[in-house]
Structure formats: structure tokens, C-alpha cells
## 1
Amino acid sequence: MPQPFPSPASPGSSPLTEPAARATDLTKVYGRGETRVTALDAVSVEFARGRFTAVMGPSGSGKSTLMHCMAGLDPLTSGSARIGGTELSSLSERQLTALRREKVGFVFQGFNLLPTLTALENITLPLHLAGRKPEPAWLDTVVGAVGLGGRLGHRPAELSGGQQQRVAVARALVSRPEIVFADEPTGNLDSRSGAELLGFLRDSVRELGQTVVMVTHDPTAAAHADRAVFLADGRIVDDVHTPAADTVLDRMLRFEAEGTSGGHGTAGGRGTAG
Ligand SMILES: Nc1ncnc2c1ncn2[C@@H]1O[C@H](COP(=O)(O)OP(=O)(O)OP(=O)(O)O)[C@@H](O)[C@H]1O
């Protein structure tokens, strides 16, 4: 029997004014003793509903760790992470699994589709795992938005990389999550497919009201977002609204230069930016 389908904008416990996700003094330490690494150092950040945010920063700056901790994939060492009104550290492993399934959508660089299922079966798999039925109108909207109409019966091996990633985006959106986390979603795509995919992510925010947080190294990708947050050494060092690709590139070069010069420079990369 069809189950009632929660709307993304009004998920029971989360007032609209509340951010889709929020970290407060989030610290994540891996290892101990000589191998101890502080991947995130008291990070506080909010991701507003209906916005597209890029998370950028040099390799090892903590981008994936931030995403994993905020999505409930990795436990925090200290501090707080919330999805809507739910504090993740208060949840059991089982509750976290349910939260990830119901409130979070994921898009990974490697698509992560099941090879034996068709595109449509892959898209609706998270709902089936949660014992829910797809809402036909929303499923049509999502499939239409990512432009997969004629390919729903194909298996992943019969689709291009760009098409496979569109299936992954549709799968992330189909449960109307509170937030979609995308980790380098264009990393395995050629530039044209990547640009298309970013267009779909942006449309899912502008036209479908979703919230997307995307980890990326690519300034052109970040320019599709409404906001770019920069990490360096596990801390947020900049926060740019409506980022342009050249501004992002300039910031990246500056932070990379600071990183390699001990982190004390102020504008070391500027001269090479343009
Ligand atoms: N499971 C782990 N065990 C130990 N250290 C880890 C683990 N995961 C990440 N780290 C360390 O934490 C720091 C942040 O890593 P993270 O993967 O979040 O960076 P990133 O900015 O996503 O890097 P990249 O852009 O290269 O993917 C790095 O120093 C990394 O080596």
C-alpha cells in the first residue's frame, strides 16, 4: 500500500527557517599518538535550505571528512552535526542508517550504481529499501529533470558515464531528502557531461527546491553553486557567495600557496592567478 510521502520542505520536526544541515565546533581526529591527524578543527558551518554550496580546498584539507561527518557516515570526535533538527551524535547506528536513507541523498564520483539493475530500478532502490513506494508525479519530475526518459530500462553498462551519473542524481533526489551531498560528482566525467550534470544539480536546487552540498576541486564546477566554502587544514578559511570561476581559482591558488609556505602567507598565489 502506498505510504505518505514526506515533503522536503516540511519534514515534520524541521521548521523552514532551520538550516538543512549545521555543524557546530565539529572536530574530527583520526588515529592517535604519532599517527594522530586533526582532519576537522572546530568547524562551524550552516547549509541553508534550497541552496547549492560547493566545498573546496586543497587535498587533505578535510572536505570529504566534513561531508562524511555531516552526512552521518563517520562519527565526530567532538562538537555537533545536525540534519534539520536531528542531532546526529544522539542517534544509534540503526537510527543513523534510517536517517541517511530517509533524509540524505548521496552522489559519489564513481556513480555507485548496481550493475544488474536497470536505471529505473537503481533510482527507486533507496525507496524500496526503506519499504516505500515512489510517488509517481515526483518520480516523473526527477526523471524528467535529469533527462533520462528514454533510458530507464537500460543497465548501467549500457549508459554513458554522464547518463550513469544522472541516474545517481535521480536516485539521490527521489526520496526528497533534506540535503544531497555530492563528493566530486563530475570527477569521472568529460567536461561536457560534467557541465550537464552540474546543470542538473543546479536545477534540482532552483526548480525542485532541493539543497545540495558538493565537494569539488574544480573552480568551474564551483561556479555553478550559490556559495563556495573553502577549507584549509581542517578549518573554514573563506566563504564566497555567488562564486565566479576566476574568483574561486584565485582563492585556491592563494590557499595552495599558503599551505606550501607554512600557512602564514596572505596572498601568495595572487600573482599567478591571472
Ligand atoms: N580514515 C582516515 N584515517 C586516518 N586519516 C584520515 C582518514 N580519512 C582522512 N584522513 C586524513 O584527514 C585529513 C583530511 O582528509 P580528507 O579526505 O577529508 O581531505 P580532502 O580535503 O577531502 O582531500 P582530497 O581533496 O585529497 O580528497 C587528511 O590529512 C587525511 O589524510
Note: The pocket of adenosine-5'-triphosphate is lined by residues 30-31, 37, 39, 57, 59-65 (CB under 6 Å).
## 2
Amino acid sequence: MRTAYDVGKVRDAERVQMARLPEGTLMGRAAAGLAATCARLLGRVYGSRVVLLVGSGDNGGDALYAGERLARRGARVEAVLAGSRTHEGGLAALRAAGGRVSDASALARADLVIDGLVGIGGKGALREPYAGLARETRHVRATVVAVDVPSGVDAGTGQVEGEAVRADVTVTFGAHKTGLLVDPGAAHAGVVELVDIGLDLPDPDVVALQDEDVADLLPRPAPESDKYRRGVVGIAAGSHLFTGAAVLAVGGAVRGGAGMVRYLGPEEPIGLVRARWPEAVTTIDDPAKVGRVQAWVVGPGLGTGEESHRIAAALLKSDVPALIDADGITLASRDRALLRRTAPTLITPHAGELSRLLGVPRERIEARRLEHARRAAEELGVTVLLKGSTTLIAEVDRPVRVNPTGTPWLATGGTGDVLSGLAGALLAGGLSCYDAASAAAYLHGLAARRAATGAPAGLPYGESPISAEDVIARLPEAFRSLIP
Ligand SMILES: NC(=O)C1=CN([C@@H]2O[C@H](COP(=O)(O)OP(=O)(O)OC[C@H]3O[C@@H](n4cnc5c(N)ncnc54)[C@H](O)[C@@H]3O)[C@@H](O)[C@H]2O)[C@@H](O)CC1
Ligand SMILES: Nc1ncnc2c1ncn2[C@@H]1O[C@H](COP(=O)(O)OP(=O)(O)O)[C@@H](O)[C@H]1O
Ligand SMILES: [K+]
């Protein structure tokens, strides 16, 4: 499991260590780790050209001391001093090692640029001249290494207001910062490397599950299992207008390991579901006629009219866990009573749907995904899976889980319906909303990557667009890659 921390906790842990250790120890460790990564990226340090972008705080100090180490190994190191002041000890050390001060024209000559403008002390949009320097790093041919966080990215939230450095590699100290795992910050960070500087940290604020964590969560049939014990999932999705949502959600559930899938909907989607997924049991329109299920999925393509509301309300009264998605979320944003349930509830909105639920503009949610996923979990009293470029899973009093799998190729119609069916199957299999959502997002992302790259069947020579059906088709492989 990868863990990440809000800035306040990192600062507290640093304070404890700084009081214990001789002055400069932590910065020394940080700079040593940073220089080691830079040396590895350069391959040959001797004769290489390194440019340091140096801000006025300790982030600039780290860059200067790393520059000193590279200069001692024969690199030509030039520092661009952007702040009103400069870390004195760091600058003296760089000069003593043969490094010199230069201006922004040095960027064009660089093999490697070290971004030490601001770190966790950054506040708001980058001001000039920092912003201009950050912009210039976009056009350099050099490898860009960010110190602790890419300057311009809010380390606590991943928010980017205005200009920000886009790094190839971010070398972060002590702990991953939450803003490095959440977009848009994550997209600016490139590959993140952690340098251990010996901090003692409490429980994390954000975690990213890895293969082995998800493998541990997944339900597996035991020798004495039967279809009921494995979990029956009910799916209320699709309408005369949106027949595809029914087929895709049922597909996600069938391939997601449900013991049985019960589909409830109108005649037209029923015909299509039967043709594509003969293993599903179908019921026309009447919620009272559906047999017992262990979890409900309510909403993809359901429609938002009175009849849809009646069906959603009847199903959500049940005492089993329920996943509410798409039109189900739109219905709930008009009638919050749908969310007041006796059993656990998982909602799976994209930013637009969450915007309707919270009454917050979509762009604001996209810019501050972490904050809004947490807020929705708290205000609505449900588990929230917020979809989009980084998928987040939030529940009150638990660290937010960031899904590390997936691909932008997933941004295509219908993939959300597959996710709903898959998560519903895992809920029916006995996972909590928090675990079902996390495992489903992980598998969905793995399947999508495999679909886009063609791996592992052929050589991974590129990527292609994918369809929602491709994601369903690759789910068995995604499971197999986790459950050997
Ligand atoms: N505290 C510690 O124990 C350690 C800190 N380290 C480094 O120290 C960094 C934090 O240092 P600081 O607290 O000095 O803070 P920073 O160096 O991150 O930033 C503070 C400086 O940037 C300026 N600034 C803030 N926002 C700005 C904006 N939007 N535009 C332009 N200028 C802006 C401030 O005026 C201030 O001078 C960490 O990110 C890390 O790199 C490491 O050396 C490891 C140990
Ligand atoms: N830029 C992106 N990068 C990675 N995944 C994305 C991106 N945009 C969307 N996704 C994923 O694609 C899926 C789309 O779901 P959704 O928006 O509900 O679409 P639909 O309603 O058409 O099924 C979600 O799993 C979401 O997290
Ligand atoms: K930085």
C-alpha cells in the first residue's frame, strides 16, 4: 500500500525530528537523496549541465545542496535565483563546489533542471518570476526533476492554480504528499520517488492500494460455495431509451464474480440483456417480483422520470447494501430521502453528477477532487467513489483511497456502467462499500489498460481506443493477474 500525508502532518513530523537531530540533518538527507536520483537520471554526471531553479525557502535550499553534490562530481551547475532571498548555506556550498549563479537563459543549455522554486510552503498560484520560470521548463529538452512537489501544485490537495512545473520525476521527502497522488497534481508529478529522511508518521490521510492489497480483498469461492452464498446482485438499469447501460452493467456484474445477476427493467433492455448475458435472470418492471438479492445497483440509464423514481425508491428501501449511479444520483439530488437508508450505500458519481448532489460547480470539483469527495461522504453519510482522471474513494473516518490503475482511454461512454455492475457484484460478495468500490476501480482500471495496450497477448507496442465491452472482456485477465 502506498500512503500519503497532508502537509500539516509532514510538518509536525519534521518538527519532532528537527528538535532531535543536529541542524541541517534533514536537509542533508533530502539533498543526498535528490542528488542520487539526478545522478542516476543523468547517467554520466561529469560534464553534464544542471540548472537549479531556486526559490526563497528551504525547497531552494534542497536544490542548492543537491547542486553542490553534483558539482563535486564534475557537473556544470548553474543556479537561477528567483526569490527575494536565497538559502545562504546552500548557496555558499554550491559556490564552494564550483557552481555559479546564472539567469534563465541557462535553461536552454541544460541536460537536467532541478525545480526548487517552492515545496510544501507554496501558497496559491505561483507569482512572478516563479510563474515565468515554471512556464519555461515546459520548453526545455532537459529532464525536469521537482524537489518535494512540482512548484505550483498544492501539496495538500493536488490543486493547480495558474502555472505549474510539469516534472518528469518528483523526488519527495519523508512521505508522499496527498497532492502527488491526486490530479491535476499527480499529472504534474511524473514518476514520484520517495526519499526516506527518517520521519515518524501517524496514520495516512490518503492511500493507494497495490496488487497484493486488492488480491487480499477479493472474495474467492470456497469448495462448499453455491451461487447464493457467493452473492446475488440485483441490477436496476437501462430503459427503452438507454438499453446499453443495462447490457453493460449486467456484463460488469457477470464478469465481476456475482453468484447470480438479477436484472430488473423494461421489456426492451430485457431482450438485449438475455441475448448478450443468458446467465442473468430477468424481471419486467416490478421490484416486488424480484427474488432476494444481497446488493442492489440502481441507476445506470434508468431515466429520471416519475416511474424511475418509483422504482429507485422501492429498491433503496431494502435493507441490503446499494450502489447508486448515474440517473440514480440525479434522482437522489432531487430527493435526498433516497440516500437515507438503513443499509450501507455507495454512490459512484463523476464530477458532473457530484456537482448536482452538492450544488457546487463541476469545474470546482474537478480542481479540488479530494476536498469534494471527502465533503460528499461527510454531508451525505454514504461512501463516495468519485470518477474521473483520478478515481477517489471516500468514507467518513477512513483515509481516502486513490485508485492507481486506469488509463485516459477509459473516458468513453459506458465504462461507468461496467464499473457499477462490477462494484455491485463485489458488494453482493460481501465486501464493504469502501472495499468493493476500491477493488472495483482497481480491476476496472487494470482491465482497461490491458484492453488499450493489448497486453499481455502481444508485444506492448502502443495503445488503442477501447470500448466499454472491451473492458468487460478483459476483466477475467485482470482478476487472474491478482489471483494467481
Ligand atoms: N522542514 C524540514 O524539516 C525539511 C524541509 N525540506 C524542504 O523544505 C521545503 C519547505 O520549505 P519552506 O517551508 O521554506 O517552504 P518553501 O520553500 O516550499 O516555500 C516558501 C517560500 O516560497 C514563497 N512562496 C510561497 N508560495 C509562493 C507562490 N505562490 N509564488 C511565489 N513564491 C511563493 C514564500 O514566500 C517562501 O519564501 C520542503 O518542501 C522541502 O523541500 C527538506 O529539506 C527536508 C526537511
Ligand atoms: N481522464 C480519465 N482518465 C482515466 N479514467 C477516466 C478519465 N475520465 C473518465 N475516466 C473513467 O472512465 C469511466 C467513465 O465513467 P462515466 O463518466 O460514468 O461514463 P459513462 O456514464 O458513459 O459510463 C470512470 O471509471 C472514470 O473514472
Ligand atoms: K519544487
Note: The pocket of NAX (ligand 1) is lined by residues 14, 18, 26-27, 30, 55-60, 62, 83, 118-127, 130, 147-148, 173, 197 (CB under 6 Å).
